[in-house]
Specification:
The protein is α+β, with helices and mostly antiparallel strands. The chain is built from 4 helices and 17 strands. The longest helix is centred in the first third of the chain and has 13 residues. The radius of gyration is 18 Å and the shape is globular.
Length: 261
């Protein structure tokens, strides 16, 4: 059959988008998802996202990593899906949709899409790193040599190391640029490579930098390899609420591909 697809990117984090409101796509076909995400033999993307109908919300987000397996929340993917929903005429300027980690609000303002993330009530601090879950699990390490760091080698070592060997963890390396601006590079599980940007990673890094007192700001800028993201939050009762991830999310192209379902 011929599959209609759309391609979106958010600060270089790119996704294959499919309108699955008719439920035609086989979500158990991991081989097909991986093939579609393959940059040499398919469309190419860091992940694949299905837009589906669901009761009480504008739509539902189903996210797959590039390895073909359904995965946890993707912040940049969520922002791209909001842009996709607008292109399909499902929403206009604001929405509430359902993802694997629960409901999310989003709004579209000019060239930016603002996505409300889940509150974070637990941040684990260790001697050389911080871990937390922002819809996906993240490891945050503060580094001074981020420009020359071999992210793939170092990230791969940590990704399934003890105590993360069961589920794996996304690995982020962060350097401070000024009082509320940080550079970030991310090794993503499921992609098994460094990506140009990671939304849940940027969110985790911002919260980790505040928690470890690298900044007192509640509005933090993250410079990824693919562009700038912003994270804002309210910190009270030792938790992070009203967490918003903001940045661009752009349509790249659309097309059709012949597949076997």
């Amino acid at each position: 059959m011929t599959l209609k697809f759309y391609k979106y990117q958010a600060t270089g984090n790119d996704f294959v988008m499919i309108d699955n409101r008719s439920q035609f796509f086989d979500k158990n076909n991991t081989k097909l998802v991986a093939q579609l995400c393959n940059r040499r033999f398919g469309i190419g993307g860091d992940g694949l996202i299905l837009l589906e109908n669901t009761p009480n919300y504008d739509f539902r987000m189903v996210y797959f990593n590039a390895n073909g397996h359904e995965s946890t929340m993707c912040g940049n993917g969520g922002r791209c899906l909001v842009a996709f929903a607008k292109q399909l005429g499902i929403i206009q300027k604001s929405t509430t949709f359902l993802a694997i980690d629960g409901p999310h609000e989003a709004r579209i303002e000019s060239s930016k899409i603002h996505l409300k993330m889940q509150s974070v009530t637990e941040v684990n601090q260790y001697e050389t790193y911080t871990t937390l879950d922002t819809g996906s699990p993240h490891y945050i390490a503060f580094k001074s040599n981020i420009e020359t760091l071999d992210v793939n080698t170092e990230g791969k070592k940590i990704r399934c190391s003890t105590p993360f060997e069961k589920e794996g963890i996304n690995v982020n390396f962060v350097a401070q640029l000024d009082q509320n601006t940080f550079a970030i590079r991310t090794y993503e599980r499921g992609v098994e490579n460094e990506t140009l940007s990671c939304g849940t990673g940027a969110t985790a890094a911002a919260i980790a930098m505040h928690k470890t007192q690298k900044t007192s700001s509640e509005h933090i800028l993250l410079q990824t390899l693919g562009g700038q993201l912003e994270v804002s939050f309210n910190h009270n009762d030792n938790a992070y609420h009203n967490v918003w991830l903001s940045g661009s999310a752009d349509f790249v192209f659309e097309g059709s591909i012949l597949i076997s379902l």
